[in-house]
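Practice problem: predict the structure.
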Amino acid sequence: MDDASKGENSYGHVLKYTGIFGGVQGLNIIVGLVRNKLVALLLGPAGMGLASLFNAVVNFMSQATSLGISFSAVRHLSEMVDSGDQGRISAFVRTVRAWSAVAALLGAAACAASAPAVGRYVFDGDGHALEIAALAPVVAMLAITGGETALLKGARRLRELAVMQIGIVAASLAVAVPVYWLLGMRGIVPVILLTAAANMALTMKYSLRMFPLGGWRGGLRGLRRALAGGGAMVRLGVAFIVSGVFGSGAEMVVRSFLNHCADLDTVGLYNAGFVMTVTYAGMVFSAMETDYFPRLSAVNNDPRAVNLAANRQIEVSLLIISPLLTFMITALPLLVPLLYSGKFAPVVPMAQVAVLSMYARAAMLPVAYITLAKGHSKAFMAVEGLSAAGLVGFVVAGFDAWGLVGTGVAVLLSNVFDLAVIIVYAGLRYRFRLSRQVVACAAAQVPLGVAAYAATFAGGAWARVALGAAATLLSAAVSAYVIYKKTDLWEKIVSRVKR
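Answer:
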């Protein structure tokens, strides 16, 4: 492994960019929490449940028709950027944009054509077919946005991506609140449309600055050449599509199941718990797709470099997220009524157990990306299919057994199952092994998370808070000590303070 690769996979580099994008996502979370608080007050659990179903439909349609460009293009462009061949890079940018346009047309047509059938399945009736058809432009805009974002990721424009993410979340707040204030539940579809448009506009502002939109050389013939040049990208992308369909399809099935077996209020509560735990906590992992995946793709032919990159990403992710998880478990009884409303209090026990799933996810995701970085599409599809089936099965069984709390148990078991599957597979095919440092970090941090959860069953409120706070402080101390020993972050902070 050369010096550049070593530098990019050092603890300092991984911590820096995981911290940068974790910090950006922290700001995004704050803005998102403000938005969710206002939306919860304006719409209530039933309105949020309906919005969740519409978003699940959009995500499913987008995943099914996007051709996987938002992910597969990153791998190919990352390798080209390392080679420095500007001619190949320019040609590939035209290829990405041509295929993104195809995906946009395909997605819009599929959404409009399938609206009646999707409405009958998801909403148990034909009443929402027109709203689903009206979401067709959203699917098209997501395809364009995905292609442009992939260009920025592949070129490793990390600063632009960070700024862009902040702008997108702020725009969603600016759009959602006034529209819901004026229209109530009738504003759900307009909000989704306007948010997608703002997302696309902000993304293209940065991508066009980096890769200007040039004319097609040779007209239709040039367009055909651009499309033909994307064969390898689309083949890998198709695998990503199938895996994405598994994931978004599983989420749509889960929400539809809860709607049929219970009501929209239950869907809204489940979605609130999922967003508070899995989505927000998982935002810390955004650096994996933005920084880690391009790095991993660049060294995918070097087994030692792949092992080093994956293990260090796991360790840094655990160090950063563990104190956050213990804090969330302890603070959720206060955060849920504060950030949503008192109507959402029943989701607290579900969310507390679901938080524990993030330990498994922090270890699972970096290993799962190895399969994508190596371009092993069939294996990736198989693993994602198992993951989706596991989530649906666990949720159905958990909800039947313990109601809403059972869905939190299901999320935890699903992530532990995913981790076991990917570790076994990567060990057999890629000779991947968890490092001793990762095992030691997990052995120190996971019991503290379990202790924070066990504290939620203590008798008095003050006892629960005291025990949870102790677990959080210990977790933060462990993370700070390891970061201090393995990086020069502390010296940099001291030197800046002295200045």
